[in-house]
Write a structure and sequence with these properties.
This protein is an alpha+beta fold and 395 residues long. It has helices at 5-12, 15-79, 85-98, 113-125, 162-165, 176-188, 222-227, 239-242, 244-248, 329-380; strands spanning 102-109, 111-112, 134-136, 142-144, 150-151, 154-158, 192-193, 206-213, 229-237, 254-262, 278-286, 301-309, 312-320. The chain has three domains: 54-240, 2-Layer Sandwich (Beta-Lactamase); 246-326, no CATH class; 328-370. The chain contains ten helices and 13 strands. A hairpin with a 5-residue loop joins strand 3 and strand 4 (142-144). The longest helix is centred in the N-terminal third of the chain and has 65 residues, at 15-79.
Length: 395
C-alpha cells in the first residue's frame, strides 16, 4: 500500500528543517509587511515635509511684510522734517490692523544731553507723571538713566498696553539684546532683528529695527549715518503671533523657532565650544502632542527649515508623531499574504523536488534488489538460462 502524502512529507523533511522553513516564512511575511508600512510612512513623511515647506514660505512672507511695514514707517519719518507723533500713531494703528502678527510699533528718538530735560518735561505734560529716561534690561528692573551725552529712549509705543507702558522712556542702548541690533541698523541702513528680548507680562519676542536720518536722502557712509541719525522705528514680534494661524489649524505639530548665529569672538566661545561653532537659541517652543501607546513606538518626523531675514538666521523646526492611520493596512495585509503565498509555493516546489529524488532512489533500490535476487537465484538454481540477441543468436 503506497504511503500517504503526510507520511511522504514527514520522510522528506527533518525537524530542524521544519523550524528553519517556519522561521524563514515568518521573516519573509514580516519583511514584506514591514516594507509596506515603511513605504506608507515614507509617503506620510514626504507629505509632512511639504507642509513644513508651506509653513516656511508663509513665515518668510510674514518677515517680508515686517520689512514692508518698517520701510513705510521710516519713509514717513524720512519725508518729514520733524517727528509728527499723531501722524505716526494713525499710520501705526492702520498697519497693526492689517498685520495682526505684529505686537507693537515703537518710535525711538535720539536724545542729546541738552534736550533730555525738555523731553522728560514734555512727556510729563502729556500725562506720563514722574516720567524719566530709564535704563536696565527689558525684562528686568529699570532705573533712571545715567547722565550720558546721548540716550535713545522709546518715546512712542502703539498700542500702549499695560505690559509695554513701562517701556516708555527706556534707553535701548542700555540693553545688550537691543544695543547691538540698533547699532548695526544705524550703520548699515538695513532692517536688523535683535536677539530674544523678553518683556515682563508678555510672551518672549524680539525687535526688528530700522533707522531714519536727518534730511530726505539716506547718507552714504556709516560715519555719515551715525552723525545724521534722527531716530529708530522698531516692531516687536512674538513668534506666538507669527505662527498663530499654523497652531489654529489643529495642534498636530510640535513647533520650535530658533535663532542661529556663529560664535566668532573669542569671548563668546564657551569652554565646551570650538571656533567656528554655532549657537542656537530657542525663542518659541510648542511641544508636539503626546502620541498614543502604539504611535509612540514609531520615530517622530522632524523637519528643519532655515529662514534668513533681517540679519538673523531663523530655523523653523517642526515635529510630528505619525498616526497609525497613515499606514495603509490593506497594502500591509496584501504584501504579507503575498509573502505567505510565495513561501507556500517555495515549500511545495521543494517538496516536489524531494519527492522526485525519493522516488528515483526507491526505483534504484527496487532495481538493485531485483538484480541481487536474480543473482542469488542463478547461483543456486540447477537449470540453465540463456538469452538471445536480435538475430535469434544465443548470447
Amino acid at each position: 500500500m503506497p504511503d500517504s502524502p503526510g507520511k511522504i512529507t514527514r520522510k522528506l523533511f527533518r525537524p530542524w528543517e521544519y523550524l528553519f522553513l517556519g522561521i524563514f516564512s515568518l521573516t519573509a511575511c514580516a519583511a514584506l509587511g514591514g516594507l509596506a508600512a515603511w513605504m506608507d510612512l515614507a509617503n506620510a513623511e514626504k507629505a509632512f515635509n511639504r507642509e513644513v515647506e508651506g509653513i516656511q514660505r508663509e513665515l518668510a512672507h510674514r518677515f517680508g511684510s515686517v520689512e514692508a511695514v518698517l520701510t513705510t514707517l521710516v519713509g514717513l519719518q524720512q519725508a518729514s522734517d520733524d517727528f509728527n507723533k499723531h501722524e505716526f500713531q494713525a499710520l501705526a494703528r492702520e498697519l497693526l490692523a492689517a498685520y495682526p502678527y505684529i505686537r507693537t510699533i515703537s518710535e525711538i528718538g535720539v536724545m542729546p544731553r541738552a534736550q533730555r530735560g525738555d523731553f522728560e518735561q514734555s512727556m510729563r505734560d502729556d500725562g506720563f507723571l514722574n516720567f524719566r529716561v530709564k535704563e536696565g534690561q527689558l525684562g528686568g528692573e529699570h532705573a533712571p538713566a545715567a547722565d550720558r551725552p546721548i540716550t535713545m529712549p522709546i518715546r512712542m509705543i502703539e498700542p500702549l498696553d499695560p505690559e509695554f507702558a513701562g517701556l516708555m522712556g527706556f534707553d535701548v542702548l542700555s540693553d545688550p539684546s537691543l544695543s547691538g541690533a540698533v547699532d548695526q541698523a544705524i550703520s548699515t541702513d538695513k532692517i536688523i532683528t535683535s536677539d530674544a528680548a523678553p518683556i515682563v507680562g508678555s510672551p518672549s519676542g524680539f525687535f526688528a529695527v530700522k533707522a531714519y536720518y536727518l534730511g530726505h536722502v539716506v547718507p552714504r557712509t556709516a560715519a555719515e549715518r551715525r552723525i545724521q541719525l534722527s531716530g529708530i522705528v522698531g516692531l516687536y514680534l512674538e513668534p506666538r503671533l507669527l505662527l498663530k494661524d499654523v497652531m489654529d489649524r489643529g495642534n498636530t505639530y510640535g513647533l520650535r523657532l530658533l535663532t542661529r548665529r556663529a560664535l566668532r569672538k573669542h569671548s563668546e566661545i564657551r569652554a565646551d565650544a570650538v571656533a567656528g561653532a554655532v549657537e542656537e537659541k530657542v525663542i518659541f517652543d510648542l511641544p508636539a502632542p503626546r502620541p498614543d501607546k502604539l504611535s509612540g513606538l514609531i520615530n517622530p518626523f522632524v523637519a528643519r527649515a532655515p529662514i534668513n531675514h533681517q540679519g538673523h538666521l531663523f530655523v523653523l523646526e517642526a515635529t510630528k508623531h505619525p498616526a497609525l492611520g497613515s499606514i495603509g493596512l490593506a497594502l500591509v495585509i496584501l504584501l504579507t499574504f503575498m509573502g505567505a503565498a510565495a513561501c507556500r509555493l517555495s515549500f511545495l516546489a521543494l517538496r516536489n523536488y524531494r519527492i522526485g529524488i525519493l522516488q528515483q532512489r526507491e526505483a534504484e533500490q527496487v532495481l538493485r534488489e531485483s538484480r541481487e535476487e536474480f543473482r542469488d537465484y542463478a547461483e543456486v538454481a540447477s537449470d540453465w538460462y540463456w538469452s538471445s540477441g536480435a538475430n535469434m543468436r544465443f548470447d
